[in-house]
Amino acid sequence: TDISFVESWSGCLEVVATGGIPVGGQDFDRRLLEILERKNPGGSPGSSGLLRAAEEAKISLTTNDEVSVSIGVGDSPETLTLTREEFEEALQSDLQRISEAIQETAQRAGVALPPAGIAGPLHVSRLVMAGGASFVPA
To answer: One matching Pfam family, short form (predicted)?
Structure first.
């Protein structure tokens, strides 16, 4: 997750502060993989098929409250249900780390972010999110 605070004036842009942490979409996939492995203890842990199913579930959970995931091969694949609530709960530590990184970068930029309110020499008028993980509703 990359973070930048950019000041804009008269058509010019100046990067005031940057920061970030190595957390993103693949980490979110792994959180879902952990949930799937807990729900399917007899399966093959960390299999590429299960990881692919976790990634597809992540994408689906950006617009749906619940998703069914078929895992296994052969005549009797097992269907597991994942909810957005389970996903968001699994992401809490990652989201907390991202929030702290945003706050740190904002502080270096001279910006106080809510809950304290926006104050300081800069005013945040727009937030631009990038990357696939930015679609996660949590």
So the answer is: HSP70
